[in-house]
Amino acid sequence: MGSLRVEKRLAGQGDQPDPLKHTLSEIFPARVTDAAAVGYLLARLPRTNAPVLWVQDRLSRRESGRPYLAGMGASRPIIMVNLSRAVDVLWAMEDGLRCRALGAVVGEVWGDPPALDFTATKRLALRSEAADVPCWLIRRAATANLSAARDRWRIGSVPSAAHPDDAQSPGPPRWALDLFRSRRKKPGQWVAEYDRAADRLYHVAPVRDGPLDAGDGAARERAAG
Amino acid sequence: MRVMERHGNAPPDDIPLVLAREGHHGPVIHAANRTARQTGIHPGSRVVDMRAICPELQVEYADEAGDRAALDRLVLWARRWCPWTVRDGDDGLILDTTGSDHLLGGEAAMLVEMETQLSLLGLTSRLAVAPTWGAAWALARFGPVRSICGADEVDFKLGALPVTGLRLDPDTVLLLRRLGLKTIGALMDVPRLSLTRRFVKAGLAANPLLRLDQALGKLAEPVSSVDAAPQFRVQSRLAEPIFDPTPYLPELCEDLCAQLKQAGMGCRGLHLCVYKTDGDISHVDVATSAASRDPAHLHSLFRDKVDAINPGYGFDLITLAAGAVEPMQTVQNHLDGGSDDDLHLTRLVDRLSAKFGPRAVSRPALRESHIPERAEGQMPALAAMTDTALVTTKERPLRLLDHPEEVRVLYAVPEGPPAQFVWRRQTHRVARYAGPERIAPEWWKDRPGTRLRDYFKVEDQTGLRIWLYREGLHEDGRGGDPRWFVHGCFA
């Protein structure tokens, strides 16, 4: 591990720094019970075995549940921190961002506490960039007020396509991703489908024509026949 | 058992030598050697009187505090024979040898071994084994050499000893002598009622009946052992009482870490103790998840903890002791200046546990169970990773609610998912579903009558994917109609 880092550093001398370093991103789930935000976040985490520091406040845990290891896969260890106040969540996240051994720092804050202001998010963003550890802030039941997060997402679930083997059961999860503010990328809206087996995100062309989508091509077939 | 402490280097035995201490009317004899005792000198009498009896008497002053400290060290040293030792007065040791004597070849062999070891230290000892503290005290001082007393012969062995062997104060001994009760046996023969009437108001040290009961084992006298002093301990003695130990902490941490480093050790806990001027102590403990001897890190653990100290009227002594000391190797840093990743992780966990309490920080781990809430257990963060990779074959949600929430099912097909349900006052129409997956109760853990669960993954009209279960079946004889719960959310 250490020797690898040395080689990387030596090889990278004189190069331009990577423009897309890890930084602070915010996610506003469309509904509080929606796990799409967590799913997208997990899909975006770097594929290492480094542990993830996961900090939750009490309301987030009570209203939206806790991260469930059996569903997330046990390959990536999680250090859970259960706290009651948003101030403590921010403190623990900031402390975690001093530690480069972590794979990521994830925080969940409920609502709009006064502690979570522009200064707090700026501190998190600077720390995250300095340590090169991705930091994700999930804000449920919150308004998108002033924040220094480099990427800000609104994420919700959308109806999935049918399962390939079973017509009545839900297929791979589909999420509506809305990057409404970003410092480094062009904002936009996408619908993505997550392939769990391959751990990949695919873009799905949004079907604008509602009735055609609902009919699933049956009407067209009839017309052709 | 009793060990008689001899003071200083042994002088020639033929010179009468006494140790003196300050009494009310000039110096009195504290202890005397054998030659001096033979000339009629006994402890407690005045030095000037004894000089008149024996003109060539040599007198030295006794170091009582030093003797006591030496005896305290000897208490811990005596743990080589048994784990439970305590100091008895100013001149004795009590060892609870229950269950330890056979390791040294029986009680007689044990006493010989003890006498040998103590004489190697330059100490003369008088030893006895007895079932009670009081009997051992009497036999060691007044009984035969290395006497061993069984549980059923206490009456017989104690009977011949003088009443001085009952640990009574001198006034009571004098009183008993005047009453004609010279031996313990004589005291035992007197009807108890008449003695009770006389000594009913006397305290323990002046009450021969209570002392007799203690010696015979009718009255319990437990031995409370002292703890071994911490191996690594630093202290800061202050000129005047203060209320806040914070300015002294960095220096204390550095001193302690220097001690630990010299011994090649690291500590997993720190005990900060302040000694208040009103004779009380107050302490704060912190713990680390891995052995450490980094002063800055250890100091940071006390960051918000010092407020918990109640300073009272101020304190003038601060001690910092290392707990749970274990060997620790010096770790080589990497070439680029960074150090091992695990080290940073342990420090992070320490900081979080110190600030929010050890219960707030945990690591979920998979367990072998089909019941969803039991499939995940909480382990202390940084516990050893288990390599048994448990693979979950069935699809499980990303989020699990701590308490399943009951939902109102408006229309349910008997063996299928609901067509529609109300959760948190919102109506969800089921568009797609997968299941059921039946999970039976674990009969070896659950109470009888626990109902099975049928889990469904349902997707509502807006795309929300929810993990629902029906508890029980219709007509399964374990309660009324089955109820429906939401247990988690899929991505």
Automatic annotation (TrEMBL), chain A:
Listed InterPro entries: P-loop_NTPase (IPR027417)
Source organism superkingdom: Bacteria
Gene3D superfamilies registered for this protein in UniProt: P-loop containing nucleotide triphosphate hydrolases
Name recorded for this polypeptide: Protein ImuA
Native organism: Yoonia sediminilitoris
Organism lineage: Bacteria, Pseudomonadati, Pseudomonadota, Alphaproteobacteria, Rhodobacterales
UniProtKB/TrEMBL annotation, chain B:
Upper taxonomic lineage: Bacteria, Pseudomonadati, Pseudomonadota, Alphaproteobacteria, Rhodobacterales
Keywords linked to the UniProt accession: DNA damage
Taxonomic superkingdom: Bacteria
Domain UmuC residue range list: 15-138
PANTHER family: BLR3025 PROTEIN, BLR3025 PROTEIN-RELATED
Protein name, entry field: Protein ImuB
Any one GO MF annotation of this record: damaged DNA binding
A GO biological process held by the record: DNA repair
InterPro entries: DNA/RNA_pol_sf, SulA_CellDiv_inhibitor, UmuC
UniProt organism field: Yoonia sediminilitoris
